Amino acid sequence: MADLRDLYQETILDHSRHPKNFGELEGATHRAEGYNPLCGDQVEVALQLDGDRVSDIKFRGRGCAISTASASLMTEALKGKTVDEALALFRKVHDAVTGQSTDELHDDSGLGKLAVLEGVKQYPLRVKCATLAWHALRNALAGQHDVAATE
What is the pTM (predicted TM-score) of this model? Predict the structure, then answer.
């Protein structure tokens, strides 16, 4: 258990300090914002669809380590996925992070680094931080321009 906790902390810190796919995405076909008023996290997710496939995705904003790391991990996982695959991944990660899933995220689940996000369920106040970018992604894919909430 300590090994998993160490991996969780190491991955979260690495992606927080050195976020992947951070910045403006010129020519984005879809974008949405998210805001968590409880801790002040703000994120914008921008993606470019090529047909039904995510050809590029970036995020920008400011937030806590968990929020930034989750957005970074999300962007890495979604490049090349179809819209349906992205939405399925949203549901699976959301359910695991909120503790609503009976399935645990394991390395053999095909989620790779995303498996570390399950550790957030041990910290209920941080679940909204971990899911903010994912909710913004879902809004972007649906063409919703409202600021995403984590409810």
Answer: 0.89
